[in-house]
Design a protein that fits this description.
Helix content is about 35%, strand content about 20%. The longest helix is centred in the first third of the chain and has 14 residues. It has one domain: 3-Layer(aba) Sandwich (Rossmann fold), CATH 3.40.50.150. By secondary structure, it is of the alpha/beta class. The protein contains eight helices and eight strands, in the order H-E-H-E-H-E-H-E-H-E-H-E-H-E-H-E. InterPro entries: SAM-dependent_MTases_sf (IPR029063), tRNA_(Gua-N-7)_MeTrfase_Trmb (IPR003358), tRNA_methyltr_TrmB_bact (IPR055361). One of its GO terms (cellular component) is tRNA methyltransferase complex. This is tRNA (guanine-N(7)-)-methyltransferase. Keywords: Methyltransferase, S-adenosyl-L-methionine, Transferase, tRNA processing. Pathway: tRNA modification; N(7)-methylguanine-tRNA biosynthesis.
Length: about 240
């Protein structure tokens, strides 16, 4: 997928003009992933064409709503939904094998408090009403570690303010990364944003919350000496 920039705007995070925070990865669906899509998409799938959504209408109740952006293969999101049946979860993932995996796992776990989009988060966020989300989760996004690619990092001022619009007053934006440079970037961006406060105190990280599953990916990184940084910013 090509990325296009306007002349002079190369270093600005122009979400609406084509700079992507992700790359579409080729990959065939496994039998399980395809089965999950076939059986569960009609039940759990959300489409951009449906337009703006109302979470209480989607879930049939007015509960605590968690929006997770970029859930990968879905293991941790399904685990969180299963562990907190009193909450409602909306996932956003652009990679179809990940969506299929999530739906298959959700079916196996008997999870019903979960819905998902298979689209770009920037497009999905346009359909989320103001002040409707309690928690936004962004766990281990692509770090785009080369300096020339930092403009592709999803955590940018415009993105932070878009999330502030959809968060309820007192709602929390929770980020996690295993790249120290990206953690520093997240901190720098978020500390500069109006309308947010750092839950842990200025320029401080939070300990890993118990509700964020401890993944194999994270364990493998820690075994190699990699750190993990969690950041939480509250809408004020």
């Amino acid at each position: 997928m090509s990325d296009t920039n306007q002349v002079g705007d190369a270093d600005k995070p122009q979400y609406r003009r084509g700079i992507k925070s992700f790359v579409i990865r080729a990959g065939r669906l496994t039998k399980g992933q395809q089965g999950g899509l076939d059986r569960q998409w009609p039940i759990m799938g959300l489409e951009l064409e449906q337009g703006e959504i109302d979470p209480p209408t989607v879930f049939g109740r007015d509960g605590h709503v968690v929006l997770e952006i970029g859930y990968g293969m879905g293991q941790s999101l399904v685990q969180m939904a299963a562990a907190a049946p009193e909450k409602d979860f909306i996932g956003v993932e652009v990679h179809l094998p990940g969506v299929g995996s999530l739906l298959n796992l959700a079916e196996e776990a008997g999870v019903t408090n979960l819905r998902t989009y298979k689209d770009d988060a920037i497009e999905v966020l346009k359909l989320i009403p103001d002040n409707s989300i309690d928690t936004v989760q962004l766990f281990f996004p692509d770090p785009w570690h080369k300096k020339k690619h930092h403009k592709r990092r999803i955590v940018q001022p415009e993105f932070a303010q878009t999330l502030r619009r959809v968060l309820k007053p007192g709602g929390v934006f929770h980020m996690a990364t295993d790249w120290e440079n990206y953690a520093e970037h997240m901190m720098e961006v978020m500390e500069a944003q109006e309308g947010y406060e750092n839950v842990a105190g200025k320029n401080e990280y939070v300990p890993r919350p118990e509700h964020r599953p401890y993944t194999k990916f994270e364990k493998r990184g820690e075994n190699k000496g990699h750190g993990v940084w969690d950041l939480m910013f509250r809408k004020v």
